[in-house]
Design goal:
alpha+beta, globular, 15% strand, 3 helices, four-stranded antiparallel sheet, 101 residues, 4 strands
């Protein structure tokens, strides 16, 4: 089953309908939770949590800041959003071939 990540207006993130683990054990950027739509600590925590859930801890630690800027910072602040596993994979595939996606 493919994973679907969703954010709802009050800065709650879900993976397949279940609350996403913030993974503050890896890096504690935002003990108050997730956020999106800018480049701060809440979006960094969200990017880290998504990549750790989708790939693994090591991948997440190596790539979450870039993913934050590529996907999370560009989401509309305060609005609902959805990112599929395919979108995550595609964002890194584009990096590997030197494309801007």
């Amino acid at each position: 089953m493919s994973k679907i990540y969703k954010g709802i207006q009050n800065d709650v993130a879900l993976v397949n309908g279940v609350p996403l683990n913030p993974r503050n054990d890896l890096v504690n950027h935002s003990p108050t939770g997730f956020s999106w739509g800018y480049g701060g600590s809440g979006p960094a925590q969200l990017a880290l949590a998504i990549l750790a859930d989708y790939y693994n801890d090591e991948f997440a630690l190596d790539h979450y800041q870039r993913f934050k800027w590529k996907k999370i910072a560009g989401l509309q602040k305060g609005a609902d959003w959805m990112i599929t596993g395919k979108e995550i994979e595609d964002s890194f595939r584009c990096d590997q071939v030197g494309l801007k996606c």
